[in-house]
Amino acid sequence: MSKWVFTCWSCRQPTEMEDKVLRADECPHCHTDMRSCKNCEYYEPGAHADCRETIAEYVPDKERSNLCGMFKPFSGERAAGVDVNAAKAKLEALFKKP
Question: Which is it for strands 4-7 and 14-17: parallel, antiparallel or unpaired?
Fold first, then answer.
């Protein structure tokens, strides 16, 4: 069986895998669930149910392990998310009273 690299959505650390991602698998670095929507190839914030797959079941918690039959591990690395604290600081500076 060939090895492949899985990158966690949470800590962005790579993990070498030999098999498919199972429901009970956790990231060895940060211990978040590996078989979650945020680690799936089809995850896309803003899409219907945050998923590009049209027949996927609705999963309310995108960070927790689930049994979605459409799960396909994301290969590569996702773009960095928005820095919420920096965005809040910019808004506060914009509306700050003199």
Answer: antiparallel
- Which pair of tokens denotes residue 57? 């079941």
Confirm whether pTM is higher than 0.85.
Answer: no
What is the spatial distance between Cα 41 and Cα 65, in angstroms, rounded to a whole number?
Answer: 15
79's tokens: 């773009």
From residue 30, alpha-carbon distances to 11, 40, 55, 92 in Å are 6, 17, 31, 32
First CA to last CA distance, the chain = 64
Residue 61 vs residues 4, 18, 65, 88, 98: alpha-carbon distances, Å: 26, 27, 8, 24, 42
| Regions of the chain where pLDDT drops below 50 | none
Q: Evaluate whether 45 touches 63 at the Cβ level (below 8 Å).
A: no
